[in-house]
Specification:
The complex is a heterotrimer of chains A (333), B (349) and C (317). Chain B is an alpha/beta fold and 349 residues long. Helix content of chain B is 34%, strand content 23%. In chain B, the strands form two sheets. Chain B has an eight-stranded mixed beta sheet, sandwiched between helices. In chain B, strands 2-1-4-5 form a four-stranded antiparallel beta sheet, with helices on one face. Chain B is globular, with a radius of gyration of 21 Å. Classes of the chains: A mainly alpha (333), B alpha/beta (349), C mainly alpha (317). Chain B: One of its GO terms (cellular component) is plasma membrane.
């Protein structure tokens, strides 16, 4: 075996020698001079957290695709009422020939999604409904995020309020969210405000707990101890040292809160405590469609809202998870 | 040392990792012979590839890593070609066993340590039931754990760090291997325990006739246990030799830098020596000598062509153009010269 | 251990008290129609008399105290609209067994399918192409993202169209009618168990002790079974109460969808009909059940993991 090795070595040496002319040889065997800056260059390249996060996110083709789909959907829901030829979602349309409402019309060139059982334009209703549901979803997610982050930061960082929050959490956590929703809707009149209020009631504490858990892990890290020694104010530490690390967790919860809010809305509508029919929402539309489920030709009234709902919820779920994965520094190569 | 004494022979090993589409060339054509019964230490900084190197002997590379070239000859077989689990099961534990770095996480927290050692005993000593239990108790005494009867039924979190490492060593030894690889066995332990563990391994090596390979970045450990030293940098062995040779007569500039960095060699009041820069990014192909950019004594040819091994003695060689007869005479740094003088004195005694 | 248990139960009782009192106070805000069968036909004087008889005109704390006194004796009042003058407890006693059957069947099915699914997905994750993992993930994403109400509906549609399974349980003679509701109800939990078990198993796979076991020469299938699965299963136990709550909530919907004469359908009904005492009773029951479930979950966790020392537990779960 050693003969194999020394043979290899000799060949290597000979190869190098053969390639060199005598002048080159003497030139090469001189000191190269030392530049310590070259030494530093050998290491790894510049790392920017946000750059790496976005790069990692955009590598996930499914998530990017869905992001584009959602962006297009959102844009369309906002723009749709202003497009030419759009109808009012609550108006009942009559057949000009006999004056009777155009009930349960199949999708055709006039009514792209058809009409519902009392003659309203389903296309207009679906987009109005999407607007309402998305609005509820975004507001709930936003309030939850705001409240939750603030509460969570205080809970995790300021020792004096920790006990209070922990007990509060223990009580609120045991309340099933649906129950609260039901009760609120029962007692207050069902409306957008009621729903938003009810959903925010229990949602924020979960966000607060996630944020708090992260902060508890981070607050005793050396760089935070150093900040404290320097006399940095609590708020500054919270916002500059800790918050950037929470982005991943926060984004995920926000992204998941939206489909959850829509889901709650659907559930409440089913029980009968949902929004009144004049405010179309995906929950309402699903419910209307459900009532006609047994008649195959009328199923389109169920399928259209379902598809829209599925696209929205799945997209948010996947985008949220993809972003959370991308923001995790362990996935930055 | 004759040819028949070689227990493991690695020839031109290439190991690559596939990380999200980019290839990391972790081991770049490394050759090494391990002799039966010796204590070999592989030294290097983090990222030099020393762990990856030994993992390839047992098929413990991560899923995205693979041996892309070269041979690992052991017992008449070429391990580099092993692909199926069945093949590796003939090697793991049975022939080669490993002791990992962190005893806190090396043991299953939800199983008693007795059971975990017994797993190895049942697999490799062919014992069952009561006989297996007795063998476990014997092994526990072997590694210096008192009251083995009681300890058998305890969980890892009931042991101290040093005791846990003894358990891990017990598991490795219970496999009755021929080669024992210790991957940073003392790095996670207190200094006072380190010496005990090293002595334990030395004793076991003698008792069970093992060949030991130590992976470490701690030169103190090396001085304590090693017969031979291999210095690794950027996925390659840059210097290989007997312990005294590498310590007292190092030839590669990286070894010089490494030894100079020892705080013990520093002079009080003077700034401590440190090597500027960082190891190269192994995603890119390395041209010439990998250490060249950080080497104050680099020659121009170091940036052009990779140096072959030059022999200093039959047992000592280094991969540096400085040993080429055409190279100018370069003086090693102050600290190394002091070591050399100490070495001469040492040999004269 | 006992000290911890006592503390935990004590805390839960406080929560329970809080919830019930809250519900009680909220219920008092409900329109009084909920107490009379034929409100429209009554004169104002009769309404007043009725209110006085039910003790609804007393101050709130008095009512609350009376309620607790009665409840602890097992008296939750009588229904006024749903089934007039029948005690709430009697009505509940009829419905509970039905819901219990449904719930238990769904939980068992969820475990029987969800756990193997998680294991298969974790195993598939170690292979080159991870096909099983990807399929499973797609399934889980769908179930978790799309609101249950939506796919329950579709399952009912598909089930009756493709497999000719009966749509409703009442009025159906065969046990086949139970297939759709049980399967539907178990779906969210299947996704839940599958997702968490897979995640825990994959996490365990990268741990050092697994590497040591591999180095020992243990077969990978044995490692999966003896080390990874056993260890990953431990934290799974904490999800049992959550999945239980999921089942309870889901049953509300499923029962009305499939006309199952259980608690869930009852709740929907009495809400629609505004029968206040019934709503109160059911909410009380659900809250209690939920809290008991959570306590059990904590206990199970401590049994499963020898590392958890009970007396020392920090803040939030």
């Amino acid at each position: 075996m050693s003969s194999y090795r020394s043979h290899k070595e000799k060949t290597l040496l000979e190869q190098v020698e053969r390639a060199l002319t005598p002048e080159e040889e003497s030139a090469l065997f001189t000191p190269a001079g030392y530049d310590f800056r070259e030494a530093e260059k050998g290491g790894y390249s510049n790392y920017s957290y946000w750059q790496s996060t976005f790069r990692a996110f955009f590598k996930n083709r499914v998530a990017v695709f869905l992001l584009l789909v959602m962006a297009a959907l959102l844009l369309f829901t906002v723009v749709q009422p202003y497009l030419p030829g759009q109808r009012d979602p609550n108006l009942i349309y009559d057949n000009p020939l006999n004056g009777l409402p155009l009930r349960n019309q199949q999708p055709n060139s006039d009514f792209w999604f058809g009409t519902n059982s009392i003659g309203q334009d389903l296309w207009a209703r679906i987009w109005a409904g999407t607007r309402t549901s998305l609005f509820i979803g975004f507001v709930v997610a936003g309030v939850e995020a705001l409240l939750g982050i603030l509460a969570g930061m205080l809970w995790g960082y300021v020792r004096r309020v920790e006990f209070l929050f922990t007990e509060l959490y223990n009580i609120l956590d045991n309340l099933p969210q649906t129950l609260v929703l039901v009760l609120f809707s029962l007692i207050l009149k069902p409306s957008i405000q009621t729903m938003v209020l009810a959903m925010c009631m229990t949602g924020w504490i979960q966000m607060a707990r996630f944020v708090r858990n992260q902060i508890v892990i981070l607050r005793d890290r050396d760089y935070n101890l150093a900040s404290r020694c320097l006399g940095t104010s609590t708020w500054r530490i919270l916002f500059k040292n800790l918050l950037p690390y929470l982005v991943s967790v926060i984004m995920l919860r926000v992204a998941l809160a939206i489909p959850a809010a829509i889901g709650n809305e659907v559930f409440i509508t089913y029980i009968g405590l949902g929004l009144p029919l004049e405010i179309p929402s995906l929950g309402n539309l699903l419910n209307e469609g459900r009532l006609l489920m047994t008649a195959p030709p009328l199923r389109y009234q169920l399928i259209f809202p379902t598809v829209v709902l599925a696209v929205i919820t799945i997209s948010f779920y996947i985008i949220g998870n993809a972003f959370a994965d991308a923001a995790d520094p362990k996935n930055h190569v | 040392m004759t040819e028949t004494d070689i227990i493991l022979s690695v020839q031109d090993l290439d190991v690559k990792f596939d990380l999200r589409g980019r290839t990391l060339h972790a081991i770049r054509g490394v050759s090494l012979d391990v002799y039966r019964g010796e204590s070999l230490a592989i030294v290097g900084e983090s990222g030099s590839g020393k762990s990856v190197f030994t993992k390839s002997f047992m098929g413990l590379l991560d899923q995205n890593g693979s041996v892309t070239g070269g041979h690992i000859l052991y017992g008449g077989q070429d391990l580099a070609g092993y692909a199926s689990e069945k093949q590796w099961l003939t090697i793991r534990g049975r022939e080669i066993a490993m002791v990992l770095q962190d005893p806190m996480t090396s043991l299953n927290p939800l199983k008693t340590i007795g059971r975990q050692i017994e797993e190895a005993v049942v697999l490799h000593q062919g014992l069952k039931g009561d006989a297996a239990r007795r063998a476990v108790l014997a092994t526990l005494s072997d590694v210096g754990i008192d009251d083995p009867e009681h300890r058998y039924g305890q969980y890892p979190h009931e042991f101290s760090g040093g005791m846990r490492q003894r358990v891990v060593i017990a598991i490795a030894v219970a496999c009755r291997p021929k080669i024992l690889i210790c991957d940073e066995p003392t790095t996670a332990l207190d200094v006072t325990i380190q010496a005990q563990i090293l002595d334990l391994v030395k004793a076991l090596q003698k008792k069970y006739d093992l060949t030991t390979i130590y992976i470490t970045h701690d030169l103190g450990v090396v001085a304590n246990v090693a017969d031979r030293i291999a210095v690794m940098y950027a996925g390659d062995i840059v210097e290989l030799g007997r312990c005294e040779e590498v310590f007292y007569d190092p030839r590669h500039p990286y070894t010089w830098a490494l030894l100079s960095s020892l705080p013990q060699l520093g002079v009080k009041g003077e700034p401590l020596y440190s090597i500027a820069g960082t190891p190269p990014n192994l995603f890119h192909e390395v041209k010439g000598d990998a250490f060249a950019p950080r080497n104050p004594q680099a020659l121009k040819i170091d940036f052009v062509a990779r140096p072959p091994y030059f022999e200093v003695s039959p047992t000592h060689k280094a991969r540096t153009w400085l040993l080429d007869p055409r190279a100018p005479k370069v003086e090693p740094p102050e600290h190394i010269r002091q070591l050399r003088e100490q070495g001469v004195k040492f040999r004269a005694q | 251990m006992l000290k911890y248990l006592a503390k935990r139960i004590g805390r839960s009782l406080i929560t329970l008290f809080f919830i019930i009192s809250l519900v009680f106070c909220l219920m008092r805000q409900m329109p009084v129609e909920g107490y009379f069968t034929n409100y429209d036909k009554l004169t104002a004087a009769q309404v007043q008399a009725g209110i006085a008889q039910l003790g609804l005109d007393k101050p709130l704390p008095v009512q609350l105290a009376r309620f607790y006194r009665d409840a602890l004796r097992g008296d939750l009042g009588v229904s006024h609209i749903y089934r007039t003058n029948v005690p709430v407890t009697t009505i509940l006693a009829e419905k509970i067994p039905v819901s219990l059957k449904l719930g238990i069947a769904a939980m068992l099915l969820a475990m029987a399918v969800g756990i193997p699914m998680g294991i298969l997905m974790a195993r598939s994750n170690r292979t080159r192409h991870k096909l099983g993992d990807k399929l499973g993930t797609g399934f889980i994403v769908f179930i978790q993202a799309v609101p249950a109400a939506v796919y329950y509906l579709f399952l009912q549609l598909l089930g009756s169209d493709l497999f000719h399974l009966p749509m409703l349980v009442t009025g159906s003679a065969t046990w086949m009618a139970w297939i759709l509701p049980v399967v539907s109800l178990s779906l969210p939990n299947i996704a839940y168990y599958g997702m968490w078990l897979r995640r825990y198993m994959v996490d365990e796979t990268t741990k050092d002790y697994v590497r040591l076991a591999t180095a020992k020469g243990v077969k990978s299938s044995t490692i999966m079974r003896r080390h990874i699965f056993r260890n990953a299963f431990v934290p799974m136990v904490q999800y049992i109460p959550t999945s239980f709550l999921n089942t309870v909530v889901g049953s509300i919907y499923i029962e009305s969808l499939y006309s199952i004469p259980g608690m869930g359908g009852l709740l929907v009904d009495v809400i629609k009909r505004q029968d206040n005492t019934m709503v109160q009773g059911i909410v009380l029951l659900y809250a209690t059940v939920g809290i008991i479930g959570l306590i059990l979950g904590d206990l199970l966790m401590t049994v499963a993991d020898p590392r958890i020392k009970l007396s020392k537990k920090e803040g939030a779960r």
